[in-house]
User: Which sequence fits this backbone?
């Protein structure tokens, strides 16, 4: 049954009034792109006390480049994430965004909405989540920045979920941004669904290689409530790459890596909301899908030779982006400070994350908003 009674909607243009409103009225339903929520509302499965629209808050939308990080506002759309500038330094993120729904949907669907997808709303069961972006964010070792009226919280993205995949946001809490280590571009994302075009994935896979630290991270999703890192495969690969020459000398490395990734697949967990949709997929099919995706992702990220030059190009591009984005923001009157509480000065607890997760002792230079509203 469609929603028939009018529902109040607030549409603030700044972050402070948004968190104030959420604190005053915790049953307000945060609406970013609305691509999940409006489907539920139209089906009569959603009866919120009101909507808080966050699509007009400039602080929540956009990309900030710092020395070591890229900070992405939670209300940044998937279409924005496919921009060539961002694709140049974080290709796995752009590829994952490009695999969400249709082109029209991507102009509305946001990164924050994707990660908070499946959030329990009021009394009913949680909607089946669509969180394809999460696999990439876990592989990248991303940190979610959350805000309530009085507090900031920074948590590795995997820490946003319970074991059954339920979203663990506190009442009145808003995701404001995601912090991602600045990559060197040696990365990729793959998705296999049950049919062509938009649909729930059988498998998603993200591979992130950082030649500067010689670390490899791979995450697979679609098989359980929350994507998992397959660190044993990444650790094995680290020892089989000639980092000095920028080459993989033994062609058999690709197949072995792919097999190790596939072995990392756990049995589908039908209890969790994300596992339910494709749980009828035979394990053998999913295993093969993982193997094929892992091999292809590795060939693209690290071809047999000659990628040192590519790494240099990525570094030049990242430098250019940093300089240019600050100027463009100033010219266009966009917020200079990202919606984060300031520099991360110590390591953040990253449960279950090794490899790239260890790179969370990042420092953001002065342009962070220096503890504002703490
Ligand atoms: C036709 C169709 C195809 C789709 N295809 C895909 C697909 O291929 N892959 C995929 O992953 N998903 C898919 N989806 C699901 C959905 O569109 C995405 O998950 C989308 O990214 C949700 O983003 P949104 O901004 O529209 O979220 P909304 O609908 O606005 O919100 C979704 C949830 O997130 C919460 N929320 C949003 N922003 C925040 C925030 N900043 N802080 C706290 N909570 C927040 C909302 O309260 C709500 O509970 C599809 C949906 C449709 C209708």
Assistant:
């Amino acid at each position: 049954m469609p929603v028939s009674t009018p529902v109040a909607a607030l549409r603030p243009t700044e972050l402070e009034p948004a968190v104030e409103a959420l604190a005053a009225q915790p049953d307000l339903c945060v609406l970013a792109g609305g691509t999940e929520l409006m489907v539920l509302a139209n089906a009569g499965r959603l009866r919120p006390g009101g909507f808080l629209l966050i699509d007009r808050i400039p602080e929540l939308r956009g990309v900030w480049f710092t020395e070591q990080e890229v900070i992405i506002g939670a209300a940044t759309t998937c279409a924005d994430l496919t921009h060539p500038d961002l694709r140049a330094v974080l290709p796995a993120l752009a590829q994952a965004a490009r695999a969400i729904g249709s082109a029209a949907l991507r102009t509305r669907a946001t990164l924050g909405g994707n990660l908070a997808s499946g959030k329990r709303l009021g009394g009913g069961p949680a909607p089946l989540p669509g969180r394809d972006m999460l696999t990439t964010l876990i592989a990248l070792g991303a940190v979610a920045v959350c805000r309530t009226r009085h507090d900031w919280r920074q948590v590795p993205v995997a820490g946003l979920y319970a074991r059954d995949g339920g979203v663990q946001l506190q009442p009145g809490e808003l995701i404001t941004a995601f912090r991602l280590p600045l990559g060197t571009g040696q990365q990729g994302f793959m998705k296999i669904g049950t049919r062509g075009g938009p649909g729930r994935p059988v498998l998603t896979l993200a591979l992130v290689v950082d030649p500067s630290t010689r670390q490899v991270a791979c995450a697979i999703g679609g098989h359980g409530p929350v994507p998992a890192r397959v660190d044993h495969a990444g650790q094995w690969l680290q020892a089989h790459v000639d980092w000095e020459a920028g080459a993989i000398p033994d062609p058999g490395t690709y197949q072995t890596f792919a097999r190790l990734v596939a072995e990392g697949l756990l049995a589908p967990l039908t209890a969790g909301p994300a596992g339910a949709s494709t749980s009828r997929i035979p394990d053998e099919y999913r295993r093969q899908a993982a193997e094929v995706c892992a091999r292809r992702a590795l060939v693209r990220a690290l071809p047999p030779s000659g990628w040192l030059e590519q790494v240099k190009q990525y570094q030049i591009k990242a430098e250019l982006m940093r300089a240019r984005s600050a100027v463009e923001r100033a010219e266009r009157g966009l917020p200079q400070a990202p919606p984060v509480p300031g520099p991360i000065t110590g390591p953040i607890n990253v449960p279950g994350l090794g490899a790239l997760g260890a790179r969370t002792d990042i420092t953001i230079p002065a342009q962070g908003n220096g503890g504002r509203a703490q």
Q: What stands out?
A: The longest helix spans residues 308-332. The CA atoms of residues 160 and 242 lie 36 Å apart. The chain has two domains: 57-183+316-360, 187-311. Residues 267-277, 347-374 have pLDDT under 50 and may be disordered.
